[in-house]
Specification:
The protein is mostly helical and 105 residues long. It has helices at residues 2-21, 29-49, 55-78, 84-103.
Length: 105
């Protein structure tokens, strides 16, 4: 279950990061509330995951899911750069996340 909790935490990490962009400096109430809910949910599930996973591994994967997911949604939602090197290095993060998963007991 720890890996599922960690995946949920990572997805919620993406949720709060993307919704933060819609808050307009926390001046828009619904995106601000969503940001807070996603943030608290992400922390909650991360807390559940680290009961059974090494903290360093869990944190790296949590942040990695957040970074890659947020960058991907930035490309889709906000027309951010699709530059080859950006995609390449995001792919390297994914490779690192898979490596961490495969080498963690």
């Amino acid at each position: 279950m720890a890996w599922i909790y960690l995946a949920v935490a990572g997805v919620l990490e993406v949720g709060w990061a993307v919704s933060l962009n819609y808050t307009d400096g926390f001046s828009r109430i619904i995106p601000t509330v969503l940001t807070g809910v996603f943030l608290l949910g992400s922390m909650f599930f991360m807390g559940l995951a680290v009961r059974d996973l090494p903290l360093g591994t869990a944190y790296a994967i949590w942040v990695g899911i957040g970074a890659v997911g947020t960058a991907a949604l930035g490309i889709v939602l906000f027309d951010e750069s699709r530059d080859f090197w950006r995609i390449f290095f995001l792919g390297l993060i994914v490779v690192a996340l898979v490596g961490l998963k495969l080498t963690t007991k």
